[in-house]
Amino acid sequence: RISLYRPARFRQTRRYPLLLVHDGGDYLEYARIKTILDNLIHRLEIPGLVAAFMHPPDRMEQYRANEAHARYLTHELVPQLEAELPLVGTPDGRCLLGASLGAVAPIAEFVNGFRAQPTAVSRKVFVSCGMYESLIYENRSLVPLLQGTGMEVCFVEARDGHNWENWRDRLREGLSWLFPGPLWLVYE
Fold this sequence. Notes:
The protein is an alpha/beta fold. It contains ten helices and six strands, in the order E-E-H-H-E-H-H-E-H-H-E-H-E-H-H-H.
C-alpha cells in the first residue's frame, strides 16, 4: 500500500522530485512528516516534491536484501508514479528515505558487498546516526568508504538514540541538503 503526498501548490504542468519513504506509515504517525514537508516547502527550504509513503506488510521480510522488493521499487512503483505524476526525470530528482532497517532496505546485503568493493551508487548521500545507539561505529566506518567513491556525503551525529524523535529531527537537515530549495540559492 502506498500513500501519496503532493505539495499544496501542486500543478500538473510542473516537474517534482520524488521522495520514496520506507516505513511510510511510521513516518506519517511518529515523525509527522507531512507537516514537516509542508513547512519546509512553504519556507522555501526544499522545492515542492511528491512523496510516496510505503506501508510494508512485513518490513523484516521485505527490507532484508529482498530482490523482489528492489524490483518492485525500480520496475513497478517508480515507473507507475512516473506515468501518473509530473516527476523530475533524472537521478538527482529521486531520493530514498528510511530509518533503521528501512534506511538500508533493500540493500542490507549490498552494504556488505559495498564494503568489499566501494562503487558510487548515487551523487549524494545523507547519513545520520544517534551517538547513543550501538550502530554509531558501523555508520562512522561507512562514511569514508562512501566518500572514497566520489559521492557527496553529509554525515550527522545527533545527541540522541535509535528512535523516531531523532529521525524526525534530522529530516530538515537531510532533505534541505539533498533537495535545496530556492531559499538556499538566495543566500549562497
